[in-house]
Amino acid sequence: MDSYSELIKNGISKSGHSLSQITKLLKQMDVQVNRGYISKLQNSKSAPASDKVNDALAYVLKIDPIELKAAAYREKIPAEVLKILQQDRQAQPA
């Protein structure tokens, strides 16, 4: 499983688009973000984007939208909740 930022970074790389081109394409979809924000997303300098932005990014970058949103949700889970979920998973019989 790729991290959220890896999915964004790989999508940008494969798309061949510059960050400016991506922002223009997103603007056409009524999603207002700037190049700096997209750069922060791909470099793990910002929390994952909202579902609306992720859906638009997935479309523009040809990323599976469910995979992108799932990666975003995993990163948004608070550490204490994630710890409990991992403990529960380990306690379940195989």
**DSSP helix count?**
6
What does the average pLDDT come to?
A: 94
- Integer tally of domains: 1
Poorly predicted residue ranges: none
User: H/E order of the elements?
Assistant: HHHHHH
What is the third-level CATH name, the topology?
434 Repressor (Amino-terminal Domain)
Tell me what the structure shows:
- The chain is mostly helical and 94 residues long.
- It has one domain: 434 Repressor (Amino-terminal Domain) (Orthogonal Bundle), CATH 1.10.260.
- It has 6 helices and no strands.
- It is elongated.
- The mean pLDDT is 94.
Question: What is the secondary structure topology, with strand pairs?
Answer:
Elements: H1 4-15, H2 19-28, H3 35-42, H4 51-61, H5 65-76, H6 79-91
Helix pairs in contact: 1-4, 2-3
Task: Write a brief caption for the model.
This protein is an all-alpha fold.
Any descriptors?
94 residues; 434 Repressor (Amino-terminal Domain); 0% strand
